[in-house]
TrEMBL record:
UniProt key word RNA-binding: no
GO MF, one annotated term: oxidoreductase activity, acting on paired donors, with incorporation or reduction of molecular oxygen
Full protein name: Cytochrome P450
PANTHER family: CYTOCHROME P450, CYTOCHROME P450 12A4, MITOCHONDRIAL-RELATED
Family matches, as Gene3D superfamilies: Cytochrome P450
InterPro entries, alphabetized: Cyt_P450, Cyt_P450_CS, Cyt_P450_E_grp-I, Cyt_P450_sf, Cytochrome_P450_monoxygenase
Length: 458
């Protein structure tokens, strides 16, 4: 018996949330490029949602959109060392993340991955759960003061996850520094995160016009991160006490093979990566989950019923809430596109790939592909609940897969599941804005604007 049946919640037809219109399959190269400048999501036609592999041309190189699990496994697991980030991807991410683990390559990446791994084990994440719960409870207390006034839940979720990121990283709140950090994120997203034509055309060693602006931004950004690290160090550490936050864990981390610690510059890049990845993607995922539940009151009531039945909020008791998070990330994957360039010739699904050819694995497409999912555009959390079989590991990639799978995946899932359960357990969420909210791809899958909600206590 489902939760809906147990609590006599009416079952309705699945919600199909609005999504951008699909591009014409015969769109010209320049038309597609213009669409990509706004949002790559709007540049894909119907073929990309139906075909196993879509082959095209990209500035004298072949491009391949992969939609089959076997081909994706080949690129991201079996022969992953042959595929590196594209120059455009590096240009967009490097000013914010430096040479952090998300974009490092080769030996540098292996050193970072080995060194950071102990800080993100389930046991380490469990030690950080009290920070997550405390911040969520504080957010709920503030939301209770809103009354029936319209509220921007996207901003509220970004503030909440930023506060969680600050406390789990540094053990101090982000009241003073949060507005500045959010200013950096908004400035970069609006001005510098959209790839320009020359970003995609020029070799990485040749700076594009936007690279000069990105370099100036990076200088200010790294100074800000350095200030946060200095403030945390000034707070000190209790000798002999266990690590109290990620900064302690990362500062004490050593490469298990070489014993090497992070340099101060490397540590700064890792801190920037964890703060940005830890709040931007999780905050956006929570916004999308609240948006979907506002559109689907029956499913919202099913989450509330699970929370009420669970009593104490514990992650193991929140299976349907976790399924809502999983389905939210299927429809709105945090990373909507994984782009790779071939370093040497290869063969994928019987198709020859030359050096510098571009390989595109788009979770946005993969998660809505008509051969891989039933009702692919519908919001159906039950597809992640027993007795439904789990999705193919290479057809569902909210955090990537293989050697470069996101290290913070468990952290993010625990945070998002606990926060959503507490929020829906406390409030009924209603969408005031009736105009469609369209997802756009700018580094992450974001809404085209922030709609207004109304919340009321349960």
């Amino acid at each position: 018996m489902s939760i809906a049946e147990a609590y006599d919640i009416p079952v309705t037809r699945p919600l199909v949330p609005p999504s951008p219109p699909r591009a014409p399959d015969n769109m010209t190269a320049f038309g597609r490029l213009r669409a990509m400048r706004t949002s790559p999501i709007s540049s894909w036609g119907q073929r990309a949602y139906e075909d196993d592999i879509v082959r095209g041309r990209f500035f004298r190189r072949s491009s391949f959109i992969l939609n089959t699990p076997d081909a994706i496994r080949h690129v991201l697991v079996d022969n992953y060392e042959n595929y590196t980030r594209t120059p455009a991807g590096i240009r967009v991410l490097r000013p914010m993340l430096g040479q952090g683990v998300l974009i490092a390559e080769g030996r540098a990446w292996k050193h970072q991955r080995r060194t950071l791994a102990p800080a993100f084990t389930p046991r380490a994440v469990t030690s950080l759960v009290p920070h997550m719960v405390a911040v969520t409870d504080e957010t709920i207390a503030k939301l209770r003061t809103v009354g029936g006034e319209p509220i921007d839940l996207r901003e509220a979720m970004q503030r909440m996850t930023l506060e969680i990121a600050g406390r789990t990283m540094f053990s101090f709140g982000m009241d003073r520094h949060g507005p500045v950090l959010r200013g950096f994120v908004m400035e970069y997203g609006e001005r510098l995160a959209h790839p320009h034509f020359l970003d995609m055309l020029l070799p990485l060693g040749w700076p594009s016009p936007q690279d000069f602006s990105r370099a100036r931004f990076r200088k200010r950004w790294t100074a800000f991160v350095g200030m946060l690290m200095a403030e945390r160090r000034a707070a000190g550490k209790n000798e002999g006490a266990p690590p109290r936050d990620l900064f302690d864990l990362m500062g004490a981390a050593r490469d298990p093979e070489t014993g090497e610690a992070f340099s101060d510059e490397q540590l700064g890049d890792e801190v920037a990566t964890m703060i940005l990845a830890g709040h931007e993607t999780t905050g956006t995922a929570l916004f999308w989950a609240l948006y979907l539940l506002a559109l689907d009151p029956a499913t919202q009531d099913e989450v509330a019923a699970e929370v009420a039945n669970a009593g104490e909020i514990e992650i193991d008791r929140l299976k349907f809430t976790r399924a809502v998070i999983d389905e939210t990330m299927r429809l709105y994957p945090p990373a909507f596109l994984i782009a790779r360039a071939a370093m040497a010739a290869d063969t994928i699904a019987g198709m020859p790939v030359r050096k510098d050819d571009v390989i595109l694995i788009a979770p946005w497409l993969l998660h809505r592909h008509e051969k891989l999912w039933r009702d692919p555009s519908a919001f159906v959390p039950a597809r992640f609940m027993p007795p439904a079989p789990p999705p193919d590991r290479f057809a569902y990639l909210p955090f990537g897969v293989g050697a470069r799978v996101c290290m913070g995946a468990h952290f993010a899932l625990v945070e998002a599941t606990l926060a959503l359960a507490k929020l829906i357990g406390a409030f009924r969420v209603e969408l005031i804005d009736k105009a469609p909210i369209m997802p756009i791809g700018i580094v992450t899958t974001q809404p085209d604007r922030s709609p207004m909600f109304r919340i009321s206590p349960r």
